[in-house]
Amino acid sequence: MKIPTKKAGNFELPVLGFGTWRMGGEGERDLNNDDTKDVTAIKKAVEVGLYHIDTAEYYAAGHSEELVAKAIADIPRDELFITTKVSPWNFKKDDLIKSCQASLKRLKVDYVDLYLLHFPSDEIPIAETMSTLDQLVSEGLIKNIGVSNFTVPLIEQAQAVTKNKIVNNQIHFSPTARAHIDNGTVKYCQENDILVTSYRPIGYYKPKYKHLSGEIAPLEPSTNKQLIEDLAKKYNKTPSQIVLNWVIAQPNIVTLFKSTSPEHIKENIGSIGWELSLDDIDKITNEYPVGDTINVPES
Ligand SMILES: NC(=O)c1ccc[n+]([C@@H]2O[C@H](COP(=O)([O-])OP(=O)(O)OC[C@H]3O[C@@H](n4cnc5c(N)ncnc54)[C@H](OP(=O)(O)O)[C@@H]3O)[C@@H](O)[C@H]2O)c1
Prior knowledge:
Number of helices: 11
Strand content: 15-25%
Bound molecules: NADP nicotinamide-adenine-dinucleotide phosphate
Helix content: 25-40%
Largest sheet: 8 strands, parallel, barrel
Strand order of the largest sheet: 3-4-5-6-7-8-9-12
Number of domains: 1
CATH superfamily: NADP-dependent oxidoreductase domain
Shape: globular
Structural class: alpha/beta
């Protein structure tokens, strides 16, 4: 299926992309992980049209990037859009260059389409980091630069010290995670041609902030389960399809999801190709209980 795209300035992303957090492990590699299952899921995702794959050097301490490499080995590079991220403790010039080279090596590619600063750093001066990203762009190792978990002042500080346009901000955003609307980040990105990528549109932590369960937000006990279930019935869709459709109905926002289940991947693809009515989009916006948003910097 051809996934529709959204554009901000000259930068374009498909409305649905595929995430790889918890593939191969979490912050460390899990030697007991079922890598074959993860590789099969990434292959399945690409097969059904999800050509944007999101990973990070942090995920499974680089092993997630290796799993992506295995999954995409037979796919022409120009048919894929690959995003990876550098961790804040590697934001110094020499570390950043090494991180980027190591990610490319693990991914077995010559370049990534989008390279993100995974989180803001309190310690390393942003000017050093951004000028190093400029160097990596000029060397052709990264095609576009972006940030993740950045709020407006942080984006402005970063943009002021790079020759390149910051084209993307990847943030936690879902019917329940709305801090980046309240703090003005989404609006700022809309007005400044920065495409927003929503992460964790359907998953949630249970118990809080400890582990990501396979359950989806509409079924989280504290939420308005009935609202999403009623809409699912009305549109003959599933709750996750309703939630994903609501996320990508937001101007300037595209989303990622992760799944190792072929059934869920197929189901989630069914979130596109139809539209919630404006009334129902507003209904979710107004009636869905707002919960926590993770990784919102204070500044
Ligand atoms: N920049 C950042 O700081 C940051 C932070 C978090 C995430 N991300 C990126 O965003 C991607 C997506 O976020 P996420 O993985 O945290 O959360 P998510 O995609 O919202 O949720 C993933 C969880 O939902 C389950 N799931 C998926 N589809 C489902 C369905 N149709 N029905 C029931 N359960 C379903 C998955 O289980 P199954 O595998 O069993 O389907 C998995 O446990 C990540 O993988 C990562 O690439 C970035």
